Every structure is written in C-alpha cells, then in structure tokens.
UniProtKB/TrEMBL annotation:
Keywords: Membrane, Transmembrane, Transmembrane helix. The chain crosses the membrane at residues 39-56. It comes from the Eukaryota. It comes from Glycine max (Soybean). This is Uncharacterized protein. InterPro entries: MFS_trans_sf (IPR036259).
Amino acid sequence: MKKLVEMKGTYYSDLVRVFYTTAHIDGEFGFCITMLQRIGTGISISIFTIVFAALVEMKRLKTAQESGVVVEPNATVPMSI
C-alpha cells in the first residue's frame, strides 16, 4: 500500500486504492478477497480486453477491405469510433 501513496494522483493508483479498500472489508461479515479471486479477476479482465481488441481489429480489417487499403502498408484506415 505504501507504493500507492507514492503514485498518488494517477488514475491507476486511485482505481487500485478503491479496489483495495473495498476488497478488504474485515468488518461485521469478515469478507476478504482471496489470492485466487484476485488472479481470476485479473484473468477475466485480460480475456475481456483481448476479445474487445479482436472485435475492433475485425471491424478495422472490414473497413480497410471496403476502402481498398489492405495491400498498402502505410495507409490510414478511414474509421471512426
């Protein structure tokens, strides 16, 4: 937790600080997140980002094929978000 204080002000440190405090509630119910749950959460987030990146890449490739710029290595694909 000491490193998080040094990283104060960044979005990542704020996100980790919120997760850390909510995941370690040792109050009335004695809830605490286990190491296996942390690993599972990280893997789930990684899988989600990979699937999202694959969907974006499929759309980019389809747009590039429709524009005819697939064979040009330095061409900019005309795609909006």
